[in-house]
Design goal:
- Helix 1 packs across helix 5.
- Helix 3 links the parallel strand 4 and strand 5.
- The strands form 2 sheets. The protein has a 6-stranded parallel β-sheet with strand order 3-2-1-4-5-6, sandwiched between helices. A 5-stranded antiparallel β-sheet has the order 7-8-11-9-10, with no helix packed on it.
- The longest helix is centred in the middle third of the chain and has 14 residues.
- The chain is an alpha/beta fold.
- The protein has 2 domains: 129 residues, NAD(P)-binding Rossmann-like Domain (Rossmann fold, 3-Layer(aba) Sandwich), CATH 3.40.50; 75 residues, 2-Layer Sandwich (Alpha-Beta Plaits).
Length: 215
């Protein structure tokens, strides 16, 4: 399970938090407005905290020192930049993504070395892709089923397809090895470094993360 902190619970932040929680991640949402948390609905199983995303004490209480990814998606560029810089530079979070509105702020983010999604082309899916980058490429999403392409890690080495797949939850249907691509069968032996194309249920993603080589 990956802990992710989302700063801002507006339309984008709430949608992002819900989508990440549905994938089985441990989500903490921070916003200055208590009413904003209503956007998360009754089924959201993450944590909500009221305050500013650049409040170091609040971030510590939110568990940022155990955090793997951080998204600053409020309606304020300044707040997003400050929050992202603290997460990246002070707490050294490996994956930080900020939302930006003004193009002139992009140079600041590039100078800080912080990833961002900017302008009207910004989408929840774009932020999610950046947050979970290195945990596979999400090729297609249909309902609660995702098609992902990922680099196999050592946990999968010398295992048979049948020993790795989960009935109705996870299925591998394409393998690329040494430049050649083939359709595997249940007895195919997988190797560390294989590129795999697979279908996985969103809620089952935490079960198969161990097979994915983080890049």
């Amino acid at each position: 399970m990956v802990r992710i902190i989302v700063i801002g619970c507006g339309r984008v932040g709430s949608s992002l938090a819900i989508a990440l929680a549905q994938k089985g991640h441990d989500i903490v949402v921070i916003d200055t407005d208590e009413e904003a948390f209503k956007r998360l609905g009754n089924t959201f199983n993450g944590i909500t905290m009221r305050g500013f995303g650049y409040d170091e004490d609040l971030l510590r209480r939110a568990g940022i020192e155990k955090c793997s990814a951080f998204a600053a998606v409020t309606n304020s560029d300044s707040a997003n930049i400050m929050s992202a810089e603290i997460a990246s530079r002070l707490f050294r979070i490996p994956k930080v993504v900020a939302r930006l509105f003004l193009p002139e702020r992009e140079r600041s983010m590039q100078y800080l070395g912080i990833d961002y999604v900017s302008g009207t082309r910004m989408t929840v899916q774009a932020i999610m892709d950046k947050l979970i980058e290195g945990l596979g490429k999400h090729v297609l999403i249909r309902g609660d089923i995702e098609v992902i392409e990922f680099l196999a890690g050592p946990e999968i080495h010398n295992k048979r397809i049948v020993d790795v797949q989960l009935p109705n939850e996870f299925r591998i249907y394409l393998v690329t090895r040494g430049g050649s691509t083939f359709i595997p069968w249940r007895e195919t032996i997988l190797k560390d470094g294989d590129i795999l194309l697979a279908a996985v249920k969103s809620l089952s993603f935490p079960k198969i993360e161990k097979y994915i080589k983080k890049q």
